[in-house]
Amino acid sequence: MAEMFLLSVLALDATLRVAAPLVLAALAGLFAERSGIVDIGLEGKMLGAAFAAAAAASVTGSVWLGLLAGIGTSVALALLHGFACITHRGNHVVSGVAINILTAGLTVTLAISWFHQGGQTPPLPDGARFTAIVWPGAQALSGIPVLGTIYRELLSGHNLLVYVAFLAVPLTWWVIYRTRFGLRLRAVGEHPEAVDSAGISVAGLRYRAMICCGVLCGIAGSYLSTAQNAAFGRDMTAGQGYIALAALIFGKWRPVPTMLACLLFGFLDAVAARLQGVELPLIGAIPVQFIQALPYVLTVVLLAGFIGKAVAPRASGEPYVKER
To answer: In this structure, is residue 318 part of a structural domain?
Structure first.
């Protein structure tokens, strides 16, 4: 029983680490889509941030400069998406896909040109990446049944950005539902005409939402290359931006349900990693390819018919033309 409990806690511990970038990216998409901007480019912003963070941390030796570089790159890509969709009223999906394609090619090209390691950045030393934070008394309390294990394995031992990811959920809830900016943001995603008639700039609000989106995506991408891993690798996001977007839809554009959806995807991914090479009774070893496909299969299955009717913000994807 004790061994089963420990395995369960370790699985949940891995779930938090895997779900952290999904939570940040999904919250980023929430800001964009609540303002009426469809953001398929979460994947591209995460990938660009991952490369910029790893490259800057490798050159400077500072993880904080790497994080700033990742956030700056992601914000620039978010503003580029906003420029196409808000200022020029372009198609949101086409713009987002273009950003994904741009970053997929540009990051590898720059990595090959700058570091000559086949599209990767050099491995980061501990001083140039986010390492685990051990809470006070984690070892001393480890002997306490249940609570000690939870404190040592589940709460303690994560890097800073994991804690940032989950603290961002109540912060986002407060911003969206308890601040003037959040009220206006929700209004511009539903009735931009009403916002405009009140003398508030629709374009200005949407650009501010894209900056929020860029900051969160920047942290998510930086997490991948400077916390979860110790370098940038080709296409290292591996579709996590799309899974985050699916979690946002699954959570019906609300912060807490979106976080729970990310935890669900993260749990499946964590369990799938532990099942690799395991011999199951009457089944045998599960093929690695099947295990790796499970999170993506779950995404399709859930969105196909298990979330009920998910209604996006009314003005989502619609360019706003100011009446004269």
So the answer is: no
